[in-house]
Design goal:
The chain contains 3 helices and 5 strands. It is α+β, with helices and mostly antiparallel strands and 141 residues long.
Amino acid sequence: MVIPRPRFRWSVDDYEKLFRHGILTENHKVELIRGEIVPKMSIGDLYASCLKRLAELFFDLVRKSATSSIQDPIRLADSEPEPDFALLKRRADYYASGKPTPIDVLLVIEVADASLAYDREVKGPLYAEKRHCGILDSQPD
């Protein structure tokens, strides 16, 4: 019989503190998904090529109307995913004062090589949740 072990859930603030204090670094290749620190997939040649093409296409299309973001974090309620590509609203400081939140995001794209099921089943629904946008479905009692 396998006894499930409890999992420790991290808040977005605690996750960011791990980076500020050097406990986690960019070399760890992780992201926070629904309160869990999970490893990111390794980058294969086909994936890298697709992302380069995608970035080039959008750089040409949006130029000064949006900010392109490649594998940079977006701050959500219980997660800090790093989508492969995102278009963000323009900000004068280019997000130096803080990570983008859902209100800043115009488009999110995940490039799937080996990660198709995970991107569809976990990250897609995460990006689509209304609660991250400050919109909650309320039902009367």
